[in-house]
Design a protein that fits this description.
Shape: elongated
Structural class: alpha/beta
Order of helices and strands: HEHEHEHEEHEHEHEHEHEHEEH
Largest sheet: 6 strands, parallel
Number of strands: 12
Number of helices: 11
Strand order of the largest sheet: 2-1-3-4-5-11
Strand content: 15-25%
Radius of gyration: 23 Å
Helix content: 40-55%
């Protein structure tokens, strides 16, 4: 069968468009690193969800360095990916590279952590937890815990996350906002443990060596630092969860195991399983469908008496 020349021309013009439509969506994703159980679970969720959604994922591990993320994002721009997603190491310093992505016509999705920019149009949407609210939840649990205490003071030491990161800033802000209602609760020492188990142990060791004030409570910005601190507390001859009340955030399996053993009192959940939601957002963004500027995840608070029952249900 022979087609008229006009028909053949129309078909030839349509083929590139049809080919582009059939091509899988390509996402460039820059991850903070692998500093904790939470982050490992988050990475696994993103990778498996991309595979299930038929999305080609170009993955870059920043090893907790902003310069590595900037390089990765510029590489994604050069590769002309369809969409860029990243979990920023710190809040500031993104204006230039995000303007480059916008100029290239590549939409950006923030995951897990927010950024501070003068122009919110530099990213399309942010999916993640409400870190301020997590800090509030941790503090509200403590307020209930000490409501009937007759102690003249409740001395808290704080293990902060990575300096300049959104969760570290916000979890501190939310916690301090709530404890102000009880003048007895005072943060006597606060230092970054960089969200890692090893650093959490190291900083807690230094806290314990300072004998000027008795430590009543440890507030850790994530479970990994809390678990590291538990090791330091035990090595100092104290009972974690008994001699020192321990509050942390994330809700990883390690925290539930520590609670079951009576070494950690409470963990505020921060859900890392964002992969499926992220992939659907990416598809909607590339298709130019309207999306919410801020997409939150639903999370709870788990105490030691719930640990044994809940532990088998934890996927991370």
């Amino acid at each position: 069968m022979r087609f008229p020349r006009r028909t053949l021309l129309a078909l030839s013009l349509a083929l590139p468009a049809l080919s582009a439509f059939a091509a899988p969506l390509v996402m460039g994703f820059s991850q903070v690193g692998a500093e904790s159980e939470w982050r490992t679970a988050n990475t696994a969720s993103v990778k498996s969800a991309a595979k299930e959604a038929g999305i080609t994922l170009k993955f870059a591990d920043a090893q907790q360095k902003q310069e590595n993320q900037v390089k990765a994002i510029r590489s994604f721009i050069a590769q002309k990916v369809d969409v860029i997603a990243f979990s920023p190491v710190v809040e500031s310093g993104w204006e230039t590279v995000l303007k480059e992505a916008k100029a290239a016509g590549i939409p950006v999705i923030l995951t897990d952590r927010a950024v501070k920019v003068t122009d919110d149009s530099l990213y399309v949407t942010f999916i993640g937890s409400d870190f301020v609210e997590e800090g509030r939840k941790a503090a509200k649990w403590l307020l209930d815990r000490v409501a009937k205490s007759t102690a003249p003071a409740i001395n808290v030491v704080e293990l902060q996350g990575t300096v300049g990161s959104a969760p570290a800033i916000d979890r501190k802000k939310g916690f301090e906002e709530v404890i102000k209602s009880n003048a007895k609760i005072q943060i006597i020492r606060s230092q970054s443990g960089d969200f890692t188990r090893a650093k959490g142990k190291e900083v807690m060791e230094s806290f314990l060596k300072q004998k000027d004030k008795k430590i009543d409570v440890l507030y850790a910005h994530n479970d990994d630092m809390a678990i590291g601190a538990i090791q330091a507390i035990e090595e100092a001859g104290l009972k974690p969860g008994v001699d020192i009340t321990i509050i942390s955030i994330d809700g990883v399996r390690g925290a539930f195991e520590a609670m079951k053993a009576g070494k950690l009192n409470v963990t505020v959940e921060c859900n890392p399983m964002l992969g499926p939601q992220l992939m659907q957002l990416a598809k909607d963004v590339v298709a130019k469908k309207p999306v919410e500027k801020r997409v939150k995840v639903i999370e709870g608070v788990f105490t030691a008496d719930q640990a044994a029952k809940e532990l088998p249900n934890r996927k991370y």
